[in-house]
Structures are given as C-alpha cells and as structure tokens.
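Structure in, sequence out. Go:
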C-alpha cells in the first residue's frame, strides 16, 4: 500500500513539472495523464478487491440440498431473532396436534378476569416468552446442575396458548380444565416408568388458573395433589371474605379463593402442602384458621432471616416429602415489588430473585408433576422487563429440575432392574452356568 501511495505522489509531481513547461510539453503531459490514470484505475481496483467489506461471489446454490445441509446453514437463532417462543423452543399447537408427543410442554394461559386489583396478567405469557429470548439451546447449560435442559433426552415444546374467553369466567374455567386434562393425559415422547405423563409449565395469567390445573391433575393421577405455593398471599380465602351484597356462584372463582375451592373439592392433599413467602395483610385471625383447615404449612417472608434458604428448603421437603405428586405454583409477587413491580397485587417486603431461585433449586427432589408462573402483568413492569426476566429464569430453573430429577429417576430404575436381574440369575443358578 505504501508503494502505491509513493507512485501516486510521483505521478502528481511529474504532472506539475510538465504543466509548467506548456505549451512545448503538452504532448508529454497528455501521455503522462493517460499513464497515471491507468495506474490509479489499477490501484482502485486492487483496493476494492481486498476490502474487508467485500461481498465475494457465491457459488449458486443447487436446487435441491439435503435437509441436514439446510439445517446446518439456516436452523439457528440469535437471542434477538426468530419468532417469540419460550427459549426459542419449537412451537407446536399441542391442543390441535396430538400426533406430536412431548415430555414437557410450555402452555400459556392468558386469563386475568378473576383478579381483585390490577388486571393485565393476560399479557404475561407473551412477556415471559420475550424475556426468555437469551435462553437458547447453544447456551442453555445450567452450571449448578451440570445439564442443558434444552438438549436433554426429554422433548420440550412451546405448546402455544389456550384460547380462553375473556367474557365468561365459568366458561374460561371449563376451557382451561379441558385443555390441561387433554395435554396431561397424553403419552409422553420418552416412554418410561419415571416419566408416565407429560408435564405442563403454565405461563399465567392470574393465579386462578391453578384451580383448573389441579382439577386436571386430580383426574390424571387419580389422587389429591400436594401444593407448594410461593406467594405473598394465602389464596385460601373463603370467597365470602370479599364483601359484597351481590352474591353469585361465579364470583367465588377468583385469584384469592382458588385453593379454598380446590381444598373443598378434595383436590389438595391436606397436611402435605406449604406456602412460602407470605406477608400480606389479613381480614383477621380467622384467615389463619381457614388456612389450617386446608392443611398448609405457612412460611413467611420474614422467616428467611432466621432460617435462611437452606432452612426453608428443608422445611418444605420435610412437609411434602419426595414421593407425593406436587403442584408447584409461583406467584411472581412473592418477590419484592422493588425488584419485580410488574404484578397485579404488589406487597412490599418480599424475597429477592436470588433467594427464590436458590430455594427452587433446592426443591428438585420433590415429585413436581405440574407447575405455573402467574401474575406477571407487564403493563406495570419497568423498561428493563425485570419482572418478566425473573419469571423466565424461574421457568428455566423448573425445567432444569424436571430434567435433572427425571434423568436421576430413570438411572435409579435402571439400576433396580439390573439388580433384580442379578438376583434372579443368582437364585436360579443361571449366573454360574453363564
């Protein structure tokens, strides 16, 4: 490049010198101009061909390429690209596509007409999916668990949303119950004794969606379900605690009474359920009495100061055990509104995202058969989407624990089968003969 610059300066000096000798030097000047023009043209061409921004010619693509070659070239998404699904998972409308099996389904429940304060959680599924954009299969390895849930043997799909009516809560309840039961009753993609039914992670929606989920699980497992409930509020309130002279059966179905209804229907395993993160104001001491009758252990937000995350994990596992089927329900308002403002009924004094995530990680031994993340209302969130980001991370932790526990249980069962085979061979004398 330096040599080219010297040649250009030399051409310029010669032109000036010859110009001074006009008119006798006109012919020589014209010849020199032609020569220098040729040099400059060549230099420009050389410079263009070696540019960093050059777009080299591509070989024309053959009309028919192997699918694997196409996938290698084009089946990739950055965090900021692609259609918005949870963690860029494959989107299948599972309710209308029974031919596509799955082990874990992400299902949206955009419903918020059973709230007592601020609406807006119907947009929660969309916000959580958008906030999960940086979760990808190529960077989904969870260091704390040593696995990537998105590249595991389990098939995880984004099943889309349940098309829930916003006009009729009774009909909405019927729709959600039918959808959860339909999806949860199918055969999983990975048929195994440790994986008898697909699991659903529901993105709410207000907290009332837990009632149809429990109704469906009760039918699928033919038994009551233990509930581990992260929330600032009890949600076991008698519907009559909402004072009104205008009574209706439909108004009993709301986001503060769904566990009361579920308990009365025999859906919740009394004595084996737990609340975590409580700090709400009450109607009075009778609220505790109602909660006691429904068999919940109460862990307050303040208890973390005395017990720490390890103590809370131990208390929940001791209460629930590791064999009973569990429904994990996380209301995002369990976190402090200073960290997660995007919710319908915020209560100051909540836990941090680090504390909640640490507790969730410690609950992997639980036999969680279904889960939800509810009450994310993006209209009240900050410009940084902090509430939705926490919800998306909570989803990642739940998926990791499901995959981790599932793989551990399959390995355990495999070991039990091999041990049984060994005993049979030994008792019959076949081992000696072999």
């Amino acid at each position: 490049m330096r040599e080219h610059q010297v040649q250009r300066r030399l051409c310029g000096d010669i032109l000036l010198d010859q110009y001074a000798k006009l008119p006798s030097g006109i012919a020589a000047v014209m010849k020199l101009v032609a020569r220098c023009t040729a040099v400059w043209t060549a230099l420009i061409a050389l410079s263009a061909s070696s540019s960093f921004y050059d777009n080299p010619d591509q070989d024309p693509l053959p009309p028919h390429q192997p699918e694997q070659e196409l996938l290698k070239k084009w089946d990739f998404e950055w965090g900021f690209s692609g259609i918005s699904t949870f963690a860029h998972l494959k989107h299948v409308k599972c309710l209308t596509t029974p031919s596509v099996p799955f082990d874990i389904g992400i299902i949206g429940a955009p419903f918020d007409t059973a709230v007592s304060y601020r609406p807006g959680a119907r947009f929660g599924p969309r916000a959580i999916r958008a906030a999960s954009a940086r979760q990808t299969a190529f960077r989904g390895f969870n260091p704390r668990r040593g696995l990537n849930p998105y590249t595991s043997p389990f098939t995880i799909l984004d099943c889309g949303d349940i098309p829930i009516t916003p006009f009729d809560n009774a009909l909405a309840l019927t729709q959600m119950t039918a959808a959860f039961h339909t999806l949860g009753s199918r055969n999983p993609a990975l048929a195994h004794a440790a994986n008898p039914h697909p699991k659903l992670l529901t993105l709410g929606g207000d907290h009332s969606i837990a009632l149809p989920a429990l109704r469906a699980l009760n039918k699928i497992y033919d038994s009551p379900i233990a509930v581990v409930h992260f929330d600032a509020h009890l949600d076991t309130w008698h519907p009559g605690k909402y004072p009104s002279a205008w009574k209706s059966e439909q108004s009993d179905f709301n986001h503060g009474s769904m566990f009361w209804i579920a308990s009365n229907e025999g859906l919740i395993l009394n004595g084996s359920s737990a609340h975590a993160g409580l700090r709400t104001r009450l109607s009075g001491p009778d609220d505790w009495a109602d909660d006691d009758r429904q068999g919940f252990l109460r862990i307050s937000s303040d208890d973390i100061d005395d017990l720490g995350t390890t103590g809370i994990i131990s208390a929940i596992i001791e209460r629930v055990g590791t064999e009973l089927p569990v429904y994990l329900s996380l209301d995002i308002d369990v976190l402090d509104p200073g960290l997660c403002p995007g919710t319908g009924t915020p209560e100051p004094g909540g836990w941090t995202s680090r504390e909640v995530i640490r507790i969730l990680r410690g609950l992997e031994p639980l036999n969680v058969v279904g889960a939800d993340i509810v009450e994310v209302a993006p209209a009240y969130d900050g410009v940084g989407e902090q509430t939705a980001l926490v919800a998306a991370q909570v989803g990642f932790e739940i998926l990791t624990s499901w995959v981790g526990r599932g793989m551990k249980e399959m390995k355990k069962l495999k070991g039990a089968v091999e041990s049984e085979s060994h005993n049979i061979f030994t008792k019959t004398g076949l081992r000696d003969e072999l």
